Amino acid sequence: MIKKCLFPAAGYGTRFLPATKANPKEMLPVLTKPLIQYGVEEAVEAGLNTMAIITGRGKRAIEDHFDISYELEHQIKGTSKEPLLNEIRSLISQCTFSYTRQVEMKGLGHAILTGETLIGNEAFAVILADDLCTSTKDSVLKQMIKVYEKYQCSIVAIEEIPMEDTSKYGVIAGNLVDGTDDTYRVTDMVEKPDPKDAPTNMAIIGRYILTPDIFDILRTTKPGKGGEIQITDALLEQAKQGKVIAYKFKGKRFDCGSVDGFVEATNYFYNKQN
Fold this sequence. Notes:
The chain is of the alpha/beta class. The chain has one domain: Spore Coat Polysaccharide Biosynthesis Protein SpsA, Chain A (Alpha-Beta Complex), CATH 3.90.550.10. The chain contains 10 helices and 13 strands. The chain has a 9-stranded mixed β-sheet, with helices on both faces. It has a two-stranded antiparallel ribbon with strand order 2-3. A hairpin with a 2-residue loop joins β2 and β3. The termini are far apart.
């Protein structure tokens, strides 16, 4: 059973400056909820209740958000505003939140390795909060949990992207398994390849399930693209042993790490709400 979900949340969010100068990008709201709350809700829906969050300098707002604000609760008690806190109260009561800091920004692989102290020796999920996902039935992470239960190895979520966008993503190549049309055993992974060098147009998005041996692999992974420790490089070591499955999820993803994607998500959820 997977019970822990890791949230790398130490990045600077430079594409949203000056809004992120003093406010974590994970706390930017889509309507009235911050991005990271959507991610925690997705993890809870998938049956996870232990949230491990990798933070950094200037990220105190995340810890404060997943805590009780006694002064605020007192001010709105008995008013029409009190129910607005029901969702976050529910998350606080259901989940355990733990935090550790990534002192240096050395890439997603390094951020995940920093979380080892919070995860321990067990399989775990990873959610990148600025990839906001929605689906009509099971959440993306819940879909992936079912795939993990079948294959018992690392799982990455993928979607088809325009070929000209491959330089923005980790890209996989693989073979369909068990007569499915959405599940691949990964044979190759390339971090942000030029379109002419990309093996496919199937890109990894910000949802992973990782087995604990990933930590030992990350410890010896040398810096790759951009001088950072890439999770793609570590996963490739597992893939060479046939131990990575890529799953083409059912649902919609918004790249809220970009202004265009953030606006698209805001409009989508506004229209859905109304």
